[in-house]
């Protein structure tokens, strides 16, 4: 496990924040080299599939020339959801390193642990809490800014309606 790769995942998360997306970032490492990167783009791409992990898995598979990523480690800033956890298992990723846990939607230990279910033919090594505070802060800052923007937009809309005589 190497902190520099979680720092790279955080850089990816910040790319998402810059375009107004929930800041989640991911990198996949093979033999000390990043072979896949991704950040959340669900809103900009208008698809539920544009999660950081899915994008990184697609890029890593292309780089490896194989869907099997057996000797790879995935670093992600927020605990994977059920879709991403399933894709990680399907890709046969060896290890997942998680920054912050996600008690509302996480499927690497919070709600359930898809990555290590004995019923599946593959289980993933899991480490959590790596650079947890930094990963949480990126998310917290994003949601504070989002609430402020939403309040301003609501207030502007209210003022516009008052000017037009609509109450």
From TrEMBL:
It is an enzyme of class 3 (hydrolase). Its cofactor is Zn(2+). Homodimer. InterPro entries: APOBEC/CMP_deaminase_Zn-bd, CMP_dCMP_dom, Cytidine_deaminase-like, MafB19-deam, tRNA_aden_deaminase. Keywords: Hydrolase, Metal-binding, tRNA processing, Zinc. It catalyses: adenosine(34) in tRNA + H2O + H(+) = inosine(34) in tRNA + NH4(+). This is tRNA-specific adenosine deaminase. The active site is at residue 53. The keyword Ribonucleoprotein does not apply. HAMAP family: tRNA_aden_deaminase. Belongs to the cytidine and deoxycytidylate deaminase family. ADAT2 subfamily. One of its GO terms (molecular function) is zinc ion binding. Catalyzes the deamination of adenosine to inosine at the wobble position 34 of tRNA(Arg2). Residues 1-146 form the CMP/dCMP-type deaminase domain. Gene3D superfamilies: Cytidine Deaminase, domain 2. Binds 1 zinc ion per subunit. Zn(2+) binds at residues 51, 81, 84. The keyword Transmembrane does not apply. The gene is tadA. Its EC number is 3.5.4.33.
């Amino acid at each position: 496990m190497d902190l520099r790769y979680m720092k790279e995942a955080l850089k990816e998360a910040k790319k998402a924040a810059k375009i107004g997306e929930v800041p989640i970032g991911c990198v996949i490492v093979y033999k000390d080299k990043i072979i896949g990167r991704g950040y959340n783009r669900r809103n900009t791409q208008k698809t539920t599939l544009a999660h950081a992990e899915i994008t990184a898995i697609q890029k890593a598979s292309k780089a490896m020339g194989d869907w099997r990523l057996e000797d790879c480690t995935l670093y992600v800033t927020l605990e994977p959801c059920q879709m991403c956890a399933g894709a990680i298992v399907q890709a046969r990723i060896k290890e997942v390193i998680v920054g912050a846990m996600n008690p509302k939607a996480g499927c690497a230990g919070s709600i359930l642990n898809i990555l290590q279910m004995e019923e599946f033919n593959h289980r993933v090594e899991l480490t959590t809490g790596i650079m947890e505070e930094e990963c949480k802060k990126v998310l917290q800052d994003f949601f504070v800014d989002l609430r402020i923007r939403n309040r301003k937009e609501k207030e502007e809309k209210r003022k516009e309606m008052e000017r037009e005589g609509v109450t």
